[in-house]
Amino acid sequence: MEEETRDTMTGLQEVRLGRRRLLEAIAAAGGALAASALLPNKWAKPVVTASSLLSEPTTSPVLGTGDLQVTLTWNTDETDVDLFVQEPDGTWTCYYSEGTTSELDVDDTDGYGPENIYVAPGEADDGVYKVYVGFYSGEGCTTATIKITTFDNTPQKQTATFIRQSCEWDYDDTLYCVAEVTFPGGTIVEKTCTISEPDAQAAHRK
Question: pTM (2 decimals)?
Fold first, then answer.
């Protein structure tokens, strides 16, 4: 008797499984919505709708651009990497000081950026704008990406991307050279060197 009951139960399970496979085949051929209407509730899979895919809206900072745009990002959280631009007249633009033609409009102090310095359209002085990064605080190795754009939204647009990495957080006021941008042409040339931070910057940190 028990064996007959087991055989009966097995037969019912096979029938149900066959029915389920048939309905899933119908779904593949005729659409999931039609098949889900035929399936018992306990068999129906949840339907993903457009509204269920919506997430909380995120916003990104609006970055200034123009004759010159320098944008810094990096790949480690809870890290502070600083962007510096020295103008042709020697003026510095960075997190603590604005230049005469360039402006820092976004400053991130805990990762992953961006930081952004720009010169508005028609405002670049003739001469050389020098770009640097400083690794101020963090742990482990951090890779910084610096994207430089000149004459954005014009036929004369030029772009270049550079990488700088540091595994040392010794607070020795070192800046890493990135590039020199020369106007009026807007040419971008990579530079690899280190310099000491400006006196006012170093004093501000201490």
Answer: 0.69
